[in-house]
Specification:
There is one protein chain. By secondary structure, this protein is mainly alpha-helical. The chain has a domain at about 10-140: Up-down Bundle (Four Helix Bundle (Hemerythrin (Met), subunit A)), CATH 1.20.120. The protein is about 50% helix and about 5% strand. It is built from eight helices and two strands. A two-stranded antiparallel ribbon has the order 1-2. The protein starts with 7 loop residues before the first helix and ends in a 12-residue tail after the last helix.
Length: about 200
């Protein structure tokens, strides 16, 4: 962990995917079992605030909330989410561009952890949930190689089921020569071939 990744590319991709989601798609299922598109957007709004504040070391209510204490809900999605989410994603990426963000310890989801880990958690959340939302709404999803390699490296360190409990599903095996995105998705507990049931 000697270099600090740039969260701007996956943040921009997330904003692009979210901006193409229609109101009619909000109830649709995602690769996250039991979580709709609207639910996941609500989650992404929350994590954007939490990890922005974690980068700034602005510790308080936004960084103390345990994500397991309540489920994300489309019913709580604010009416202005289409304008709020891109702004928060820009703020998130900008906060992690500050070298000080990666120093020392911080807090996210009620957990105190090294800042270098928190930044990679944030990046990984953007990658996986960006893919989730794109796949759920029939959009293409692309990601730069540096971001994907950071995500794969992070996910490769959490292959024990006990470590993954509550964070990711079981690893989905993909061929070793599979595209980087498929490898990241599989390590994140998703099947790269997942598609919504349109029946």
């Amino acid at each position: 962990m000697t270099t600090t990744p740039d969260l701007a590319p996956p943040a921009r991709r997330m904003a692009l995917v979210a901006g193409n989601i229609t109101d009619e798609q909000l109830p649709d299922p995602t690769p996250c079992e039991g979580v709709s598109v609207g639910d996941l957007l609500h989650h992404v709004l929350g994590l954007s605030v939490a990890f922005r504040d974690a980068a700034r070391k602005d510790l308080g209510p936004t960084t103390r909330i345990d994500p397991g204490s309540s489920r994300p809900s489309a019913a709580l999605l604010p009416a202005d989410w289409r304008t709020r989410l891109p702004r928060l994603l820009d703020e998130l990426a900008a906060a992690w561009r500050d070298p000080a963000a990666w120093e020392g310890a911080t807090q996210a989801g009620g957990v105190t952890l090294p800042a270098v880990v928190a930044g990679r958690v944030a990046l990984n959340e953007l990658v996986l949930h960006g893919w989730d939302l794109a796949r759920a709404t029939g959009q293409e999803y692309t990601c730069d190689e540096a971001t994907l390699r950071t995500s794969i490296d992070f996910l490769s360190q959490a292959t024990d089921e006990a470590d993954r409990a509550g964070a990711f599903g079981p690893v989905v095996e993909v061929p070793p020569d599979a595209p980087l995105l498929d490898r990241a998705v599989g390590l994140g507990g998703r099947s790269p071939s997942w598609a919504p049931d349109r029946r």
